[in-house]
Amino acid sequence: MMKSMKTLGRSTASLLTALHDERRTIFSLDDAVRILGGTKKTVSNLLSKAQQRGVVTRLRRGTYILVPFELGSESVYAGDPWVVADRLFEDKQRYLSHGTAMAIHGMTQQPQILVTITVADRYPETIFAQGTEIRVTGLPISQFFGIGRKWFEHGYVMVSDVERTIIDCLRRPDLCGGFSEIAAGTWMVKEKVKTKKLVDYALQIKTKAVVNRTGFLMASCDLGDEEDMQRLRSALTDTYHLLDPTMPDDGRFNSRWRLRVNVSEEETRMARAKARRDLSDSLPAL
Q1: Which of 159, 165, 201, 233 makes an SS bond possible with 96, Cβ 3.0 to 4.6 Å?
Q2: Which UniProt keywords apply (predicted)?
């Protein structure tokens, strides 16, 4: 009965075959027109009928996702939100970043209620695809580095590596829960962090406050050696920056890293202790 709900016409079958050959599960109206020919109106009507039969789901205007055949008559399917966000911008330089990248790298146990993606030369915006909130932030293409491909069951995504994730979060703590979450997440992957690369990235991103925050974070997490610290300190200016711009402008001044430490040590300790418990709970029992 479920299979009969998805009986395919010739055009729909041709479209699915072509998408399968191209290894695409998410596609645009323009893709379908390219494959099938005809007018946008004709192909749009075909896709509307395919959606009614549970063959595809519309993620947003002009963008669709194939519904896995094993779901039978299910007519609404959102897919993996990370893969969906990536595919929505697959024609652009992009990567999953900030809090989403932290989740991918095991740097947080906090539930992720939205997906954050950085897209080259893009204005910030928030879009919705089948109930998934996708927060888009932009960067100049010159700042696209430290990015790689990571595979999941439903496909691959472009994502920042661990070190770039830390740097992005230090640049925009508001997109990952604040400095305490960054410190806790860094502690969780401490053994994986390549400190030379982290320092390289901090200097390459060309945001002065990031250099200050990176030095403070590395000192807090006992990362790096004196050479790393000296490279960062040599790039400091006389200007003081907030450790966490999401928090009130108060707290003690740290002259070593030219920071106003507006996050209490107790708050950071509590976040790290929670991260330690979460990490311990996630390990298999012996």
Answers
A1: 159
A2: Plasmid
Nearest 10 degrees: Cα torsion 149, 151, 156, 160? -40
Question: CB count, 10 Å around CB of 41?
Answer: 9
CB count in 10 Å sphere of residue 114: 15
Half-sphere exposure of 2 (CA within 13 A, CB side): 9
Tokens coding 24: 């695409």
Q: Reply yes or no on whether the pLDDT at 114 is more than 90.
A: yes
Q: To which residue do tokens 């009507």 refer?
A: 45
What are the residues whose beta carbons fall under 8 Å from the beta carbon of 204, sequence distance 6 or more?
145
* Of 271, 281, 282, the residue nearest 244 (C-alpha): 271
Beta bridge partners, 254, equal: 259
Instruction: Tell me if the domain spanning 4-71 has CATH number 1.10.10.10.
Output: yes
Residue with tokens 């950071």: 268
**Tens of pLDDT along 202-253?**
999 989 999 999 999 999 999 999 999 999 999 999 999 999 999 999 999 9
3-class SS of residue 141: helix
Q: pLDDT by residue (tens digit) across 92-109?
A: 999 999 999 999 999 987
Please state, in angstroms and rounded to a whole number, the distance separating the CA atoms of residues 116 and 124.
11
Q: Using an 8 Å Cβ cutoff, are 159 and 95 in contact? A: yes
Q: For the chain, give every domain's residue range.
A: 4-71, 79-160, 175-281
Helical segments of the chain, H only: 10-21, 29-36, 40-52, 81-88, 98-104, 162-171, 179-188, 195-204, 208-220, 226-233, 265-282
